[in-house]
Amino acid sequence: MRRLVASSFGLGLVPGRVRGSDSGAGTFGAALGAAVGVGLLAAETPWWVGAAVAVGVIGVSLWASAPFGGEHADPGWVCIDETAGTLVALVGLHGLPWIAALVVARLADIFKVLPGVGPAERLPGGLGITADDVLAGLYGLAVGWVLSAL
Q1: d(CA 35, CA 86)
Q2: Based on the structure, what is the number of domains in the chain?
Q3: Which residues touch 64 (CB under 8 Å, ≥6 apart)?
């Protein structure tokens, strides 16, 4: 059960099955987060519903990824953390700020050059697996809010 949830309901396993490598699995998890975000937009939910969904998925990510995070490992196929980080990035946004937040969060997670993202990944267990993506999502959210304010 945890493996299914940790892989964003099997999405993180697709690259390994198709190409023989987990490379890019995080993007599948982020795509699930974006799809949920689109659903929240379509339903015209208030910002706090998006925030509650993001917090819930963070909790699920911490639980589901915990058994797979030994010795500071972040297995490529575990991508529920990317789903959570993407949902964090999209809270309360729409239009161009929504797109910008999504792109910034994904790039921050991939390249880990923004302050704190790399060190967050080195935390132990499920916390390390999830924390870097949540922090990357917060960077994306900040960019989205700035663009919304302009």
Answers
A1: 10
A2: 1
A3: 2, 5, 6, 78, 80, 126
Give me the percent of the chain exceeding a pLDDT of 90.
95
CA atoms of 46 and 120, how far apart (whole Å):
30
Which residue type occupies 13? Answer: L
Cβ atoms 59, 114 nearer than 8 A: no
The model's pLDDT over 124-138, given as tens digits with 9 standing for 90+, comes to 999 999 999 999 999
Q: Which domain holds residue 38?
A: 2-149
